[in-house]
Every structure is written in C-alpha cells, then in structure tokens.
Automatic annotation (TrEMBL):
One of the record's GO molecular function terms: transmembrane transporter activity
Transmembrane segments: 12-32, 38-58, 79-101, 107-127, 148-168, 174-196, 227-252, 264-282, 294-315, 321-340, 360-382, 388-407
GO cellular component term, pick one: plasma membrane
This protein's name: MFS transporter
PANTHER family tied to this protein: MACROLIDE-EFFLUX PROTEIN, PERMEASE, MAJOR FACILITATOR SUPERFAMILY-RELATED
SUPFAM superfamilies the record matches: MFS general substrate transporter
Length: 425
C-alpha cells in the first residue's frame, strides 16, 4: 500500500511539475517578449534592447555557482518557494513603481536582472530535485515533458505577448505575470521534494563548509568522474557550435536567399514544432537503454544538418523547393535537439550523486550561458568575413569530430558496459 501511495505521489509530482514549469515559463517569456517591445517603444534604440538581454544573461552567469551551492546545502523546496516569493514581491514593487514613476529603463533593467537571478535559483533547485520528486523509471518521461513544456511556451508566448502588447498596458500585463507566479508557487508548495531521496535534507544536517571550498569540491567531483566530464564537455561544445547554426540559418535564408519575412517565420516555426513533437513522443516511449549512444547519433545527425544547410547556395533551386527544404531541415534540427538533450539529461540525473547535483548543474548552466552569447558574437563576426557555406560546413565537421572523440568507444563502454557485452556476444 505504501509503495502504491508513493507512486501515486510521484505521478502527482510529474504533472504538477509540468503545469508549474509551463505556467512560470510561459509567464516569464511573455513578460520578456513584451518588455523588449516596451523598451524599443520607449527609446527606439537597439542598444538599450541589447542591454536588457545582458541584464538577463549576465546575472545567470554570475549567480549560477552560488545557486548550485545553495541547492546542495539547503532545502531545495524552500529555495524554489522563496525564489518565487521574491519574484512575486518584485512584480508588485515593479507595478507600484511603474504606476508612480512611469516607465523607466533603470526600473525595467533592474526587474529583468532580479527575475533572472530568482529563476536561476529556482531552476537549479528544481532540476536538482527531479530524482527526489519522481521515480527512476519515469525520469525520461519527466525530462521529455519538461522539454515539451518549454517548446509550447516558446511557440505560444510570442503570439500571446504580441496580442497583449497591442491591447494591454504594462501594469495589467505584470498582474497577469504575478498571477502565474502565485499559481506556480501554490502548486510547488504541495510537492514533496525528497519523496525518493533524503540526500538534500541530510546535507543540511552536516557541518557547513565555506562557499568557496564547497564549490571547489563540486568541481573536483566532476573532474574525478571522466564519464560526467565527457558528457559536460559534449554539452558545452554543442552549445558553442550550435551558435553557427543559430546565427547562420537566419543569415542564409534572409540575407543570401532573400526569403520573404512571412515564409521565414513559417520555416522558423518548424524548429519549435519538431521539438514539441519529439518531446511528446519521448514522454510516452520507454526509456532509452543506451542514452549516450542515442545522444551521440543525435549530435552526428545535427552536424550533418548544419553541414548541408547551405546546399541551396550552391545548387539552383526554385523558391518552393527552398522553402520545403528549409522547413524540413528546421523540423529535423528541432527534433534532433530533443533527441540529444533528453538522454543526456536523464544520464546526468542518474549518474550524479544527489548531494552534488546543484553544483554540477550550475557548472553546465554557467558554461552554457557564457558560451551562447560568445558563440553568437564569434559566428556573427565570421559570417561578415567568410562565405556562409564555409562556416556551416566547418562547424558541422567540428561537431562530428568532437563527438566522435568525446563519445569514443572507450567512453561508451564505460557508460554502458552491457552494450559491450551485447555486441561481443
């Protein structure tokens, strides 16, 4: 009876987690989308728009190590709830300041930075708690549902944000965001973050080390486990080289091929559709037996997709064929990203000891957040200097070479000893 009750609670956690993540993600993305428009309307400056983006990215890079430390040393449920409470109070303060002082860049920048910090703390604490909330057999399902929720929010938030921007004043929009945060807060308060794990609560009882020593300990934990180090290295290299694709696809389709804006928008939407459908599929299928092999094949496929993206620049095609070709590639790339992300995240959830998850995931978060803008800037400069097909083909080849080395047979055997037995039999 007790086991049945625990599984029912895990099912409740699974769907509560999904609903809470969707509400908070959707609210945050609608806010970010509309505030960007308000800044452009207020100043008409692309520089001020970029500063707002920096106010979102830079705080994440700075606070991620501290958030990881906190997630490993303190009650994760309290961190999630406190983070959302601070977000709610910040929204209330922002509403009051907008009503009293009107729209101000400094106010909007400060709010963006605060929301970025609180979402980093809550996000890392939530990610570190998945194995405590949900049973081992449904980690892939939870991860896939999380990816699906992010995809739905990414598809819907620009459309809803655009409608709200046209019909709703900023204080009303902020009230809607506040409502979303409060609903998420109520849902999270009903969850037992240590249903399947007590490591986090045990960490609270242990003597507290210094922050710096604790963070070094987390890094040493990663360095002492070559398999985890290989997975993190793969994730960071993929993040960087995908910058070539993120900058390149827009540049190739708009600048080189003069694709009309409406067609470009439709083609771009196929990326999110691919992510959504693949995430939905993975949420229902059984867990991958050899997740690192699946991720390796996904990265090899992504390298090929990046490499062949510029074929229409080299071969004459009519506009319909170009549109269809890119719609298919964007759909495949979106699907492939999910095929890469989901097994890797499931492996990390299972490989990393619960008391180190916050610090390890913070290393990934810090690296990814730093590499995305770095890759975007670097490849943006390269596209102004070199032909697009050289950059895309080179990036695709580098991605393939990197994964063939980092996920070489010796690493695969270490990750999946049973795979070696199966193939040697």
């Amino acid at each position: 009876m007790e086991e049945q009750f625990i599984l029912k609670r895990a099912t409740y956690h699974l769907w509560t987690f999904a609903i809470s993540k969707f509400i908070s993600n959707f609210g945050a993305q609608v806010y970010a989308f509309t505030v960007s428009f308000y800044i452009l309307q207020l100043t008409g400056s692309a520089t001020n728009f970029a500063v707002n983006l920096l106010c979102n990215v830079v705080p994440r890079i700075i606070v991620s190590p501290f958030a990881g430390y906190m997630a490993d040393r303190f009650d994760r449920k309290k961190i999630v709830i406190l983070s959302h409470m601070i977000t709610a109070l910040s929204i209330i303060a922002l509403i009051c300041m907008v009503l009293v002082f009107g729209l101000s860049l400094s106010i909007l920048y400060s709010a963006t930075a605060i929301f970025s910090i609180t979402s980093t703390f809550s996000g890392l604490a939530f990610t570190s708690s998945i194995t405590g909330l949900i049973d081992q057999h449904r980690i892939q399902k939870a991860t896939a549902i999380n990816q699906m929720v992010i995809s739905i929010a990414a598809i819907a938030s620009p459309a809803i944000g655009g409608i709200l921007y046209g019909f709703v004043i900023l204080p009303v929009l902020l009230l809607m965001y506040l409502t979303a945060v409060i609903i998420a807060l109520i849902l999270e308060s009903t969850m037992n973050f240590t249903l399947f794990s007590t490591a986090n609560s045990e960490a609270n009882a242990s003597p507290q080390e210094s922050l710096w020593k604790n963070m070094i300990e987390g890094w040493n934990y990663v360095k002492g486990r070559p398999l985890i180090m290989a997975i993190i290295s793969i994730a960071l290299i993929v993040n960087f080289l995908v910058g070539a694709f993120q900058v390149g696809y827009s540049y190739v389709m708009i600048e080189n091929l003069n694709m009309p804006a409406e067609k470009f928008g439709i083609v771009e939407s196929f990326f999110a559709i691919g992510m959504l459908l693949m995430a939905a599929y993975l949420s229902f299928r059984k867990e991958f037996r050899f997740p690192l092999i699946v991720a390796k094949r996904g990265i090899l496929s992504l390298g090929i997709i990046i490499g062949i993206f510029t074929i229409p620049l080299l071969i004459n095609m009519n506009s319909f064929v170009i549109f269809t070709y890119y719609a298919l590639l964007m759909f495949l790339s979106g699907s492939t990203i999910i095929i890469i992300n989901t097994p890797v995240q499931v492996m990390m959830q299972k490989l990393i000891h619960d008391s180190y998850k916050g610090r390890v995931f913070s290393i990934v978060e810090t690296g990814a957040q730093a590499l995305i803008p770095l890759g975007t800037i670097a490849f943006g400069i390269l596209y102004d200097i070199l032909p697009a097909h050289w950059i895309m083909v080179s990036s695709g080849c580098l991605l393939i070479i990197a994964v063939l080395y980092l996920a070489r047979p010796a690493v695969i055997r270490k990750a999946h000893p049973e795979w070696q037995i199966k193939h040697s039999a």
